[in-house]
Design goal:
32% helix; 8 strands; 8-stranded mixed β-sheet; alpha/beta; Rossmann fold; 182 residues
Length: 182
């Protein structure tokens, strides 16, 4: 399997940014965890009050790991594990006009085109809320890009060999402004 779980330190940094001193900031939020791997990020979101997390993973073995992790933690509601290619899952979400507060994506680092393709598809969603935050985990030495359709990067956080790029709809970030989360 090609699973590289988000490191504990990077995951902690991610959630510190998203909550920015407000531990209840994630209460009732809806998430997509794309290329979910072990499901660590989505599970963390659930543990911090997310109402719903969709775990999208193509690998049957990884889906089994996600399900085992959820079961071992006693998580039986507020989530859906979807075994599908990300492109097909995104098409489903777009067709259903689902809205999300957070979209996290973490393709295998070697699949650099998957970043641009996935971010472009999300950036073209007409149902993407202005407040939705899209986060891409990537190698520090790789830049997935600044703009994808309506998405604009407003922050990049680097830690060790990894980085997180944060995106929002253009009108949320403003021209040349940095949007503060939390």
């Amino acid at each position: 399997m090609d699973i590289r779980p988000t490191s504990d330190r990077l995951r902690e940094a991610l959630f510190n940014v998203l909550t920015a001193g407000n531990p209840d900031a994630l209460d009732g939020t809806n998430w997509i965890d794309l290329y979910a791997g072990t499901g660590a990020v989505g599970i963390e979101a659930l543990s911090r009050g997310a109402a719903q997390v969709y775990f999208v993973e193509q690998s049957a073995a990884a889906v089994e790991v996600i399900q085992e992790n959820l079961k071992s933690l006693g998580i039986g509601s507020g989530m859906e594990v979807i075994q599908k290619e990300v492109v097909r899952a995104l098409a489903r979400f777009k067709k259903e006009a689902n809205t999300f507060d957070f979209v996290f994506l973490d393709p295998p680092y070697r699949l650099q085109d998957s970043y641009r393709d996935t971010l472009s598809r999300i950036g073209d969603w007409s149902s993407l809320k202005t407040a939705t935050i899209v986060i891409a985990e990537h190698e520090k030495k790789f830049d997935p890009g600044e703009e994808f359709g309506e998405l604009r990067r407003f922050r990049m956080l680097k830690q060790g060999d990894a980085a997180l790029s944060f995106y929002r709809r253009r009108e949320a970030t403003g021209q040349g402004e940095e949007y503060k989360t939390g």
